[in-house]
Amino acid sequence: MTQRARIDHDGPERAGGAAIDAGAELDPVHPMKPPAPRFKPAGLSTAEVAERVARGDVNDVPVRSSRSTADIVRANVFTRFNAIIGVLWVIMLIVAPIQDSLFGFVIIANTGIGIIQELRAKKTLDGLAVIGEAKPSVRRDGSTAEVSTSEIVLDDVIELGPGDKVVVDGLVGEADGLEIDESLLTGEADPVLKKPGDQVMSGSFVVAGGGAFTATKVGREAYAAQLAEEASRFTLVHSELRSGISTILKYVTWMMVPTSIGLVISQLVVKDSNLKDSIARTVGGIVPMIPEGLVLLTSVAFAIGVIRLGRKQCLVQELPAIEGLARVDVVCLDKTGTLTEGGMDVTELRPLGGAEAAYVKKVLGALGESDPRPNASLQAIIDAYPDSAEWRCTESLPFSSARKYSGASFSEGDGENNTWLLGAPDVLLPAGDPALDEINGLNEQGLRVLLLARSARELDDPAVATGVRPTALVVLEQRLRPDAADTLRYFDEQNVKAKVISGDNAVSVGAVAGKLGLPGAHNTVDARELPAERAEMAEVLDGNSVFGRVTPQQKRDMVGALQSNGHTVAMTGDGVNDVLALKDADIGVSMGSGSEATRAVAQIVLLNNSFATLPSVVAEGRRVIGNITRVATLFLTKTVYSVLLAILVVCSQVEYPFLPRHLTLLSTLTIGIPAFFLALAPNKERAKPHFVKRVMRYAIPGGAIAAFATFATYLIARAHYTGPDSLKAETSAATLALFLTSMWVLAIIARPYTWWRVALVGAMGAAFLVVLVVPWLQDFFQLKLEGVTMPWIAVAIAAAASAAIEFTFRWVDRRFQA
């Protein structure tokens, strides 16, 4: 009775489920090439599988959910800035006391933290990837079982159904309306109808129908594996944050080179001072120019974000997806599986045109039995009306989201041969049909209605749905997700517009959205009436929230229209009909129970199938991006004032005021420790574009003011102090001015204040005070304020600089909004 039974019964001659003997001839292009394998409907035997495993014909491509341990260590250790600082560290270990080499130990600690955090993230990702890995159905010894993709061997017979991903290359042996989408490989959006003997490529997926194929290429020979060698699944997509930091570092490097050369010449040649002291002060001027902590902090923040989301059963397949969701202002939701749970229940059966209820139930039971891979609607019908009729299925038409119906032809045992269709009433019935009024009333209650209709045409007739005779209405009730209403409310509060885009009837979709409290749910739009022009479509999309009868291609067009209007779009879905839209959206989010195809193209997979996890993902993204943008100002302010101080020293032909130990102390207290805590703090502000502009508009004026204030204090101190040890007193005064000015920048960045932020800033100030008053710390850092006048002058200059920074930052907020 089942489709599979029909194939076995009819044998290999049937076109619908034909078995091929592809080994009859040698390949005419490659005559020495072995013949293609003969299709074996029963699959390989256990002995044949063992033989192939022994000779290595196994699909042994590792699942790359993250970078390898060696890659993580290499990426954190062998960096351009670690190389620069490493060389400077070795020099300082040779020519100066250990306290001037502290910056090197900080780099070791930071690199170690980065490695540890990424390894923790890798462990989380690898574990989740195994949980989320789909297992294809493979025939062996005459039975079908699910196996891991890594256990597939050459010549295995692999079954395919709607939503399944083709995991290895092969030749089709059985095909029953098998349509394969190869858009991820070829860019061609239209599905390709496959027949026995046709080739299928790994990385494609099934959109309709079913069948089976023989694996001809496994492991690294498969097409998808060859693509993966060039770009693995974990290759980073575009990240404005990462590219922005790279741009900043590129300009910093350009500034560093001439400035450092000038500083070296100034300290070693022009001043002709003590060689070791000159080297130490030269290095002290170069090291703080490098914002190495910013790169590390970004990696750590991303890694911690992945770990946090992993604990909530959320698999982040591409790290910048965290950043992308933070920037999202429109989220498109597929109703089925997202707002509603996968299952449905038949609540009512309404025969039409005098049809007998008992006969209708027989037809529905037979239709359910004819599809070996029923969707949620058909599964509900199967549960309600199990097959009891001894009818023979002569042909079947799998459900397609593009045509909105499925069908089958039966030989009913009494000489009757009938073709039946089951699908959307507004697609199968002409406009104005009396039955549509009754259906609309049910849709307005949020119920889903399918029409059972008899067709007078053959099932393979393109016009099979024309002129059908309505026989019954099947009323289904969808199960709403209990957490969907709260999630929609969260998006509304966060100014993220939710758009429900579904292939179901628009009125029914609107009723479901209305029950969940979606703003604008009463204004539903039938996608068949949407304008084709992108600009006009974008205008309709902006003004409405619920769209029904959307085709897969329209979902893709709608995502593109929203993007053309300047929106950052996230798309959620779990069905194969969502794949095109998921692929084109800025961020694709798939349910863990969704098809293998949707999980393959999505950047984020919700393994617990809970739509309620999305707010956590958005919040995590906003926390990471908002905080990195915030603390980046601290790091780059230091870079700006370090470069300007070096330039001022070179131009003035004076000793560089600081040793490395001074700037290590300042960086630790005003940047390093505070930045770590601020980067992990809660932050609900939606991420904004133009990262470089947003950061540099504060860092440049803040760093410039700090540099000029510090250098002015240093020059005044040079005039104030005399004697052989005057440089230490001058350095101490300049250090005090720079610390106080940097602390004010930190105080601005730490806003809005909470008890722990105030405590953090206060603790940093107290730590510096301890260094100034404890004798052995004074000696260790060579910091001792001499007299009363100069320290108070330094405080006054720092206060004026802080006021200037406060005024400038506020002016920048008004004048240069990013």
UniProtKB/TrEMBL annotation:
<feature type="domain" description="P-type ATPase A">
    <location>
        <begin position="137"/>
        <end position="230"/>
    </location>
</feature>
<dbReference type="InterPro" id="IPR023299">
    <property type="entry name" value="ATPase_P-typ_cyto_dom_N"/>
</dbReference>
<feature type="transmembrane region" description="Helical">
    <location>
        <begin position="789"/>
        <end position="809"/>
    </location>
</feature>
<feature type="transmembrane region" description="Helical">
    <location>
        <begin position="290"/>
        <end position="309"/>
    </location>
</feature>
<feature type="transmembrane region" description="Helical">
    <location>
        <begin position="695"/>
        <end position="717"/>
    </location>
</feature>
<dbReference type="InterPro" id="IPR008250">
    <property type="entry name" value="ATPase_P-typ_transduc_dom_A_sf"/>
</dbReference>
<dbReference type="InterPro" id="IPR001757">
    <property type="entry name" value="P_typ_ATPase"/>
</dbReference>
<feature type="transmembrane region" description="Helical">
    <location>
        <begin position="729"/>
        <end position="749"/>
    </location>
</feature>
<keyword id="KW-0812">Transmembrane</keyword>
<dbReference type="Pfam" id="PF00702">
    <property type="entry name" value="Hydrolase"/>
</dbReference>
<feature type="transmembrane region" description="Helical">
    <location>
        <begin position="662"/>
        <end position="683"/>
    </location>
</feature>
<dbReference type="InterPro" id="IPR023214">
    <property type="entry name" value="HAD_sf"/>
</dbReference>
<feature type="transmembrane region" description="Helical">
    <location>
        <begin position="102"/>
        <end position="119"/>
    </location>
</feature>
<feature type="transmembrane region" description="Helical">
    <location>
        <begin position="631"/>
        <end position="650"/>
    </location>
</feature>
<dbReference type="InterPro" id="IPR044492">
    <property type="entry name" value="P_typ_ATPase_HD_dom"/>
</dbReference>
<keyword id="KW-1133">Transmembrane helix</keyword>
<keyword id="KW-0472">Membrane</keyword>
<dbReference type="InterPro" id="IPR036412">
    <property type="entry name" value="HAD-like_sf"/>
</dbReference>
<dbReference type="InterPro" id="IPR059000">
    <property type="entry name" value="ATPase_P-type_domA"/>
</dbReference>
<dbReference type="InterPro" id="IPR018303">
    <property type="entry name" value="ATPase_P-typ_P_site"/>
</dbReference>
<keyword id="KW-1278">Translocase</keyword>
<protein>
    <submittedName>
        <fullName>Cation-translocating P-type ATPase</fullName>
    </submittedName>
</protein>
<dbReference type="InterPro" id="IPR023298">
    <property type="entry name" value="ATPase_P-typ_TM_dom_sf"/>
</dbReference>
<feature type="transmembrane region" description="Helical">
    <location>
        <begin position="251"/>
        <end position="270"/>
    </location>
</feature>
<feature type="transmembrane region" description="Helical">
    <location>
        <begin position="756"/>
        <end position="777"/>
    </location>
</feature>
<dbReference type="Pfam" id="PF00122">
    <property type="entry name" value="E1-E2_ATPase"/>
</dbReference>
<feature type="transmembrane region" description="Helical">
    <location>
        <begin position="77"/>
        <end position="96"/>
    </location>
</feature>
